Fold each of these.
Amino acid sequence: MLIVKKKTRSIKQIGLERFVQRLPSHHSRYSSIENALRTTRAGDNGEKILAGVFSRFQIPFQHYVFHDLNLSSTGKFQIDTLFLCRQGAVILEMKNIAGSISFPTGQNQITRTLKNGQVDSFECPSIQLERNEMLLEDWFYARNMSVPIYKAVVFPRTQQHFESERSNLKILFPLEVLTYLRNIGDLSPTLDDGQLREISAALMESHRDYNPFPLISSFNISSSELKTGVQCEKCGLFGMESIHKGWGCHRCKYVSADAHLQSVLDYFMLVDNVITNRDCRLFLRLDSPQKANRILKRLQVPSFGDRKGRHYAVDLSDIELLENKVRRDD
Ligand SMILES: [Zn+2]
């Protein structure tokens, strides 16, 4: 057994949490950011549940599990969990949606009804599964591989009620996933162990981490609409003052040596993947170019240009490293 790319709290969720902090609550798009955060959080939790099933239970035959794969063939596509065995590839999509779910016939949507009577519509998971199946088929085809593809949607809430399910859509609860996969494992194999290893290596090679940043552009918000300043990690105030030892909060008197790190990370996740000394001073509300220079230099991220034209640019892995650093300092 091999589990590749185990899922944790996503960097997108962390970015959206910072977005909610930095956007004034009276902003017209505030609730759409909150909604995006809620959806991302539900998705992350659902995927954690599925990853937990794979780590707790044994599957007694040769297989590989990939979580959160981003691939491209005739189009870009993302698969929540891909299970690979000698019988073929199984696409598992997670749908963490609360409420009673109904599948109206002849529609590409599902509706859910909450206890309070609220009704919402979502794209039917069968649409996404069929699209992913087609793109994965194309991915195999481009590599001269012929692999049978199976697909199912997983709803992580075991108390969930479904109405008028579709005959062409396999629905599973997390613990049913194992039986479903074991049944596929009983079919006659079409791949040998060597081919399995080859496909697994090709998937890893082809996977690209998805970079959701900077977030303001996907929500059509301008950087001038965000709260600036260094945030006090004790009382939440934006606008810590630059002092000799670092940063001081005039409201709660907290002093921090490196509170600016979170703000620079916020800049990269929300505003732009490139920062200059001037951008840094405006965003941190800092007067001293020397201090801004020291802050940027110590980030240890790639820089370009010299002196006044110097700018620092990050990719997703730089952002993840910086995020780890901020969290460790908590
Ligand atoms: Zn404070």
Amino acid sequence: MNGSKPKNESQRGFTLLEMMVVVAIIAILAAILVPNFTRARAQTQTAACMGNIKMIATALELYYTDTGSYPAASTPTNVETLGLTGYLNQTPADPAGPGSYTVKTQSNAGNGGVAGYQIWCPGTHDPGTLAKIAGGTTANTHIKFDNQAGFTTVSAQNQ
Ligand SMILES: [Zn+2]
């Protein structure tokens, strides 16, 4: 009689080497995917912030169409206190950070006969997601919109 009957093939477990290979493959996949998810999240925040700014710009243009001037704000003013009630139903929040969007306006007389405005975002964005905007560098983290110059990036709000 043979007491040490060989195990059935289907009952064999994994060897240590097989387990190590599987764990290594999972680790490699995670190392590839996690940074991509992080970057995608930051890019979504930047896109949403630019949408918020365009929404504020549209409200300012509607205000201008109705009244003939932008709301008075000779220094950067929080958008909540700008008097855009009826033009901006909800005050947008920057997904990249806390604080208020700020707006500065110029009257026709004070700007060489051309009225204008600038909008700044309060949040701190991943600079890599701002690279496609004019002025995007590895240092700038904030988005600025000028009704003449369009989107640019700056290193701090209200600059
Ligand atoms: Zn922002």
Amino acid sequence: MSVRNMPCICQKCQMEIQHGFDVDNVPHLDSEFTLFCPNCSSEQVFRYKDSKKIMAERKRIREEMELREYVKSLAEQYGFRCSFIYQSVTITTPCGSWRFDYHKRLKHLMHESTYKYNLKTGNESFWHHQFDRKMSIEEVIKYIDNHDKATMRRKSMKKEKV
Ligand SMILES: [Zn+2]
């Protein structure tokens, strides 16, 4: 388990302590939380100290939210839904789902097709690696749209044959 050390201020005595939070459980920047204050010798309400670290953290969060908004607005232009998990976005289209880390220039693109690969065994769809390419977020979403259109064309051609 990794820990993030944050400077915190006791709201009763104003003493500053460094507290290591479990990275998955770090309180929100503007929140109040309870910690043991060695000066008060009791549990007290604490807030983060408004340090450079906290301001950098606020900036990082704001930039992350802006980046997510940007990805979301691009996806919505094509009528795709998206959800964010850690560093990655999952984009869901009528033909399947796609996942990549939208922070990196080199896009490691994963694909889960809704198309059943084996109609005899009825195997479920699964994630596979599509490619690693240096491209912008916009280019990836355009690629997904083109891939969808090609899948639709293949499916409608199959239907015509039957
Ligand atoms: Zn205190």
Amino acid sequence: MGETTKIAWTDHTFNCWWGCQRVSLGCENCYAESFAKRYGTAWGPSADRRFFPDKHWNEPRKWNRLAEAARVRKRVFCASMADVFEARSDLDSQRERLWKLISETPWLDWLLLTKRPQNIKLMLPDGLDRKNIWLGTTAENQENADKRIPLLLSNRAAKLFVSYEPALGPVDFSPWLEEGRQPPGEPRTGNLFGTTTSCSPSSEGGTHGSERDTQRDGEVERVGSQRDSTSALSGREASTDRRGVRDLRQDGFEDRTRRPLGISWLIIGGESGPKARPFDLAWGRSTIAQCKAANVPVFFKQAGALPIDSERYLGTFAPEDKRSIAAAKALGCDDNPPNLVLLWHPKGGDLSELPPEFNVREFPNQRTVR
Ligand code: SF4
């Protein structure tokens, strides 16, 4: 992709190839897939990946020279049109090329965001200097947070970050936040999600509420079965407790003498696009509060194209609005339409339109390899 980017949390984007296949619910409206198809690039497990010539690969070297001249480090998001850790042998040579490029561009911080953190250990060479590598994973709901974040945190990198985008349900991130992390087995208390409603996003009757199978790298991955806020809340203490014990033990963390490492940065975003699913500002509020409590930098990117607010009435309730009807349908609560938040910005990315607690765009600023 090009030199500049519209993604608010990075300076550049770079794609080592184009193409991917869907992994989970977060991929349902994959913008990269629609974008690639507009350019005639096939998508999915049986499609070839699109590779690029030397000129494309030399672009980051130019960014590196400029960053060095200005003595200002730049962030590079890799990849917006692919997943660096997709398991296909035809991608191995491109990955080798990427590792070399990363080591030759020390003024660039490479943000490798994946929905396949289980492949990082296999694919990222042990000997590669990781001073300029930030490893990240997407956690669009609690199920994938539980599955992917422990895998991410078992790796070493300059930063370990999580993208909560598209946020599709409430998530308790606190067990993995740097300061908020609990020793394994220690129960958590308190209502991190604030007020809940009887009809809130991701209810079991909603569009995304049923279990289904999707293909993932030739395997079948069980996704879905999101809980509503009420059941998530009532079951959360048990699941947090269980998650702490199970996942940390799986990673061998309980045997470490020092405190396990947590998430160093968290990005929040609602879904954009014509088929956007609802984003409840209550989820964003809760996540920002969790990060603040743990002193972890948090970046609120956007409220998405279908923002609602189950906690507060913002004076925008419009039950007859077609977006309100769509949100009610997605949430399975046609009789009780959610409190739709109407914004001018099509992606909900103008923070001046949102309540002040969302005006937070922080970055991690320390440069340490862990
Ligand atoms: S992993 Fe990312 S690029 Fe691949 S299909 Fe899912 S959303 Fe699209």
